[in-house]
Specification:
mainly alpha, globular, 20 helices, 66% helix, 435 residues
Length: 435
């Protein structure tokens, strides 16, 4: 648990919520604690649902390419074991009480359930009503767990449309069948509204930290832009230029190691936010460059930091790690860090750029070579890329965990397809031998 996790835990204990982090996680933990449970129960649910989802999704992808039966049932399990081994940071992410973990688990189940429901409907089997309810719930949780997940709303609407009776029965695009997507939007806004009102969530405007970071970058690149940002310019420290880190909010936050602004700077000041919008109006390309610089830091293969959070941060709630497993834990941490530091594993499991490029390549192959087994699989391929590019709109820190939901989903898809290729070659060899 890092500082964000501890903060959310504190909100669950006290019942005082704010939206610096989406409050849905703290609220759910609050009820787990009220029922006599603890955070270990919730993280155990994360681990089980994550592992089960990975297994089922890989198995479903193999089935799409006619790789099924007891003879090949070990392949999804083998993939899961590889991802849980020290070559991958997945075990630490599944155990972390953090919003990115909920998003990655949600992605896995959305992908699996979408493929499953489409398969059930097109094969004239009985309706997968409960699967559809679980899919709808997974989409809502992803949207509530991460502010930037809002970019996925159009994709979710399209997925729900493809799973509607109107499309699965005719395979034609009509206006009918859009009602499930509209219901998703209404449900999202309804639950967001209810959460804020029922739990008296304090609005903290976390977006203003992004505005301040981008304004700082714009001033560092060209001080002439001070004409649009007089408030921030008047609060800059003498070493603001050296303190600036692309896509990192630390220099303008109270906890930053090197300050780019003085202690009286208020990122929530109305004149500052007004000046930011004025900057967007008059110098949009300057802001876009800063956004791109921050995004590059997040996906760059050389940015190998924060693969996972290896400890439970100090806290006032009596939370401690289990000493019985300390030796196992420290050994696993050191092994994972050592393996991820090796070039091969760093590119395969410790970076995002490779997987973003693979995702884009798959999308291009689908449309150029028509290699997709069905339209649902094609649509799912857009989910990792869309979510990854959401950080082009706003980045706060080049932390590995932010884009890991996209990377993990692509790893499952990619290695499942590799299993398909290997299985097909093995079957071809067997058939040739028998003939």
């Amino acid at each position: 648990m890092n500082g964000d996790s501890v903060s959310q835990y504190g909100q669950a204990v006290t019942g005082n919520y704010d939206d610096w982090h989406p409050p849905v996680m703290a609220i759910m933990l609050h009820y787990v604690l009220r029922l006599g449970g603890n955070i270990g129960i919730l993280t155990l649910i994360q681990i089980v649902s994550g592992c089960l989802g990975i297994y089922l999704l890989s198995k479903k992808i193999l089935g799409l390419f006619n790789i099924s039966g007891n003879k090949y049932s070990y392949l999804p399990l083998l993939l899961l074991l590889i991802l849980l081994s020290p070559v991958s940071p997945l075990p630490f992410h599944l155990m972390a009480f953090i919003k990115d973990t909920w998003v990655e688990i949600g992605f896995i189940w959305i992908a699996y359930l979408s493929l499953h429901i489409y398969d059930v409907k097109t094969n004239k089997a009985k309706k997968a009503r409960w699967s559809f309810i679980l899919l709808f719930t997974s989409m809502i949780f992803v949207l509530l767990a991460r502010h930037n997940a809002i970019v996925l709303v159009p994709l979710f609407i399209f997925l729900l449309y493809l799973l509607s009776n109107s499309y699965t029965s005719t395979k034609k695009f009509k206006l009918q069948g859009i009602e499930n997507g509209l219901l998703l939007v209404l449900a999202y806004f309804f639950f967001s509204h209810q959460i804020y009102n029922s739990y008296h969530v304090t609005k903290t405007h976390p977006e203003n930290q992004v505005y301040a970071t981008e304004c700082l970058g714009v001033l560092v690149n060209n001080t002439d832009n001070k004409v649009y940002l007089p408030y921030m310019y008047s609060h800059l420290t003498p070493n603001y230029a050296s303190a600036y880190i692309p896509g990192n909010v630390a220099p303008i936050m109270w906890w930053g190691p090197v300050k780019a602004v003085d202690s009286t700077f208020d990122r929530d000041d109305s004149q500052f936010t007004a000046q930011y919008y004025n900057l967007l109006k008059h110098a949009p390309l300057s802001v876009l460059k800063i956004k791109w610089d921050g995004f590059k830091m997040m996906i760059h293969s050389r940015n190998r930091r924060h693969w996972f959070h290896p400890q439970l941060d100090s806290n006032n709630y009596g939370l401690t790690q289990n000493e019985y497993f300390k030796s196992i834990r420290t050994n696993w941490i050191s092994r994972t860090e050592r393996l991820l530091s090796a070039t091969l594993f760093a590119y395969a499991f410790g970076g995002h750029l490779l997987w973003l490029l693979i995702d884009i390549a798959f999308i291009l192959l689908v449309f150029i070579k028509r290699l997709s087994p069905n339209i649902i699989f094609t649509t799912i391929l857009f989910m990792p890329a869309l979510y990854c590019f959401s950080y082009l709109l706003a980045s706060t820190d080049p932390d590995f965990r932010f884009i890991y939901p996209s990377t993990l989903l692509m790893q499952i898809i990619f290695f499942s397809l590799i299993s398909v290729l290997i299985s097909n070659k093995f079957r071809l060899k067997q058939s040739l031998t028998s003939s």
